[in-house]
Every structure is written in structure tokens, then in C-alpha cells.
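assembly run, all chains below
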Amino acid sequence: MLTKHLAPLDGESDAPLFDKIATDLRRDGFSINANALPWHIAQALLTHSQSMHSQQFETAGIGREENYNVNQAIRSDAICWITGTSFAGSQWLAWCQQLQDHLNQKLFLGLFSFESHYACFQPGAFFKRHYDTFKGDKNRVLSVVAYLNKDWQQSDGGELVLYKDEQDTKGKKIHPEFATLAIFLSEEFPHEVLPANRQRLSVTGWFRVNQFNG
Ligand SMILES: O=C(O)CCC(=O)C(=O)O
Ligand SMILES: [Fe+2]
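ok done. output:
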């Protein structure tokens, strides 16, 4: 299947992709883009995540800081927070900073900071339907997921299912193929990760507003 390449070739700018994301977010509240994350960044993230020992990944939890709970009935992936200390991490964070600046200019979202982690779902692992933040908790505003799985097949499962509201039970399925980028408003969309037949790697991040000005 031929997919339109949104990612820039060397020397081209990311502006067309950032513009499309801004337009989609304004209209729909979400933006799904195949072949979107620049290939060299996706490749660096994949190589880095594969080079780490499994001990560097921790069992994922729910909530923040003192409310953090590990509940494997809700999610059974393992995560590793991304800092700027690795080459891959610094490339990714710099790219997300550009996206943040662009979205702030276009949509006046007031995005202020960004946090992200690798997530590794072993075969059978899942993340049940949830919101990334709670209404009124002005913390996480925009969720971004970049997938790192080459040649992902339909039969591999592991889709992200994005529901348009509380009532929606059908949802929209997103195939976690390498360099696909899913972006959505954190407060608006319940979503879940279906179990996969093979290991599923991704990077998940959240743009946040400044709580003290919120
Ligand atoms: O990996 C995905 O597709 C989504 C992960 C997710 O929902 C989360 O980390 O909050
Ligand atoms: Fe989520």
C-alpha cells in the first residue's frame, strides 16, 4: 500500500505536517498521521529503546506522584521516562518543542512543558479504556503517541482505539505502525490499547500547561 509521506526529506521543513496537525486539532480535536515522525528520529528512538535492559523499564502505573498506583488490571505495559540525556531522547524532545511552538502560535493553546516515556507492551498486554487527564485538572492538555513498530500487520492487533466521547463504543482504530503519530486533546477522548500478538513499542507524551497560571 502506498501511503502519503508527510515526513520531510532532509532539508525540508516540518511546517506542512505541523500545519495539518493544527488544522485537524481545531476541527476534530485529534490528528492521526502515518509516516509523520521524521524517519531518523523514529529510528533513533527504536534503536535506543531496544538497546535498554528490561530493568530500565518499570511497570506502568496510573495517576501522578502521591496518587501513583500500579494496577495491572487497567494497564500491563512497562515504561521508561525519556530525558534529554540520550541522543534519541534529545532529538525527540527538540522535535516536540518545535511542534509545541507551532501549535501555540496557531491555536493559542499555551502549551508550556512536555513529558514523555517509552512504552513496551509485551504480547497480550493492554491498556483499558481511560482518559489521560480529568476534566478541569488543567494538567495534560495534548497527548501524543509515536509508534515504533516496523511492518505491523492487521493481524498483529494492538490498535489504539480512540472514542469520540463517553457514549461511543465503536471508536476509531489506529494501527501502531512505525513513524505514525497520533495526537489528541487529553481531556476529550477516552481511549484504549488492545492486546497485540507481538511486542508493541511506542513513545507517549503529554504537553502540559503551566499549572500556576492555569
Ligand atoms: O500506546 C498507545 O497507543 C496509547 C497509550 C496510552 O493511552 C497512554 O499511555 O496513556
Ligand atoms: Fe492514554
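The mean pLDDT is 89.

Residues 15-53+72-209 form a domain with the Jelly Rolls fold (CATH 2.60.120.620).

not gonna interpret more than that til we talk
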